[in-house]
Amino acid sequence: MTEQVILQIAGVNKRFGGLQALTDVGIKIMKGQIYGLIGPNGAGKTTFFNVITGLYQPDTGTFELAGKPYSPSAPHEVAKAGIARTFQNIRLFGEMTALENVMVGRHVRSRQGVFGAIFRHKAAREEEAAIRQRAQELLDFVGIGKFASRTSKFLSYGDQRRLEIARALATDPQLLALDEPAAGMNATEKLALRDLLTKIKEQGRTVLLIEHDVKMMMSLCDRMMVLEYGKPIAEGLPAEIQSNQAVIDAYLGGSH
Ligand SMILES: Nc1ncnc2c1ncn2[C@@H]1O[C@H](COP(=O)(O)OP(=O)(O)OP(=O)(O)O)[C@@H](O)[C@H]1O
């Protein structure tokens, strides 16, 4: 079986004033992988994510998604190219129901778009029904189907995180990028999240993940990259990362 490269990025540099936040960072993610990005606080993980997803403009870098160059010049361009992301701080439409939040994600891909939905042409109505059904399926898939009509701000923290993932999946992305999805979760929620990410991988999806819970990352990721002071210091299989002396010194300490 030939493996397909989903994301290939090379030579990313990003400076904030006097701070070199990223130095020659590259990444290569194969289809179907869960790829982990770890590193101490301030290492540049979120900055790299923001560059990949069009929120920050890099000073240099080349970007390819599924073999095609893409421009990370704006978040909507990146979404159109096929990367969906979630944020460290949950960004849902709090006053909308869970189902509506996912439907908004799906409209990115719909032919009629949001305007068609508003003007309610027949074709738009039919498409709307299909979007509604798909949104419900996604809520079921992430395990919160029974909360479809609940206002999203009233969902538990863990369920809001699941909802964010469902909304990202609604765009049917080539790459799902998750920024600290386990942040603030308790142990039970983390285990459930791990199961969900495994299920997403089993569907053949490709996931890029930032996470501080190293134990979870080691058991979940196919490959990992470690950043320190904006530079990649190691890349490889979790077992290789775990035994890499530079990583142990920089990040894991002696305890892992
Ligand atoms: N918009 C910005 N303007 C100026 N400096 C920034 C900006 N965003 C990030 N930085 C700086 O870039 C460096 C990398 O930050 P970044 O948030 O990417 O690290 P991180 O690895 O994601 O950290 P954490 O694990 O704490 O989220 C830090 O020194 C940070 O202060």
From TrEMBL:
InterPro entries documented for this protein: AAA+_ATPase (IPR003593), ABC_AA/LPS_Transport (IPR051120), ABC_transporter-like_ATP-bd (IPR003439), ABC_transporter-like_CS (IPR017871), BCA_ABC_TP_C (IPR032823), P-loop_NTPase (IPR027417)
A molecular-function term among this protein's GO annotations: ATP binding
Domain ABC transporter: from-to ranges: 7-254
Keywords from the UniProt entry: ATP-binding, Cell membrane, Membrane, Nucleotide-binding, Transport
Keyword set includes Transport: yes
Coiled coil: none
SMART domains named among the record's database cross-references: AAA
Top-level lineage group: Bacteria
PROSITE patterns from the UniProt entry: ABC_TRANSPORTER_1 (PS00211), ABC_TRANSPORTER_2 (PS50893)
Keyword Nucleotide-binding: yes
CDD domains: ABC_Mj1267_LivG_branched
Transmembrane portions of the chain: none
Protein name: ABC transporter ATP-binding protein
Source organism: Duganella dendranthematis
Lineage: Bacteria, Pseudomonadati, Pseudomonadota, Betaproteobacteria, Burkholderiales
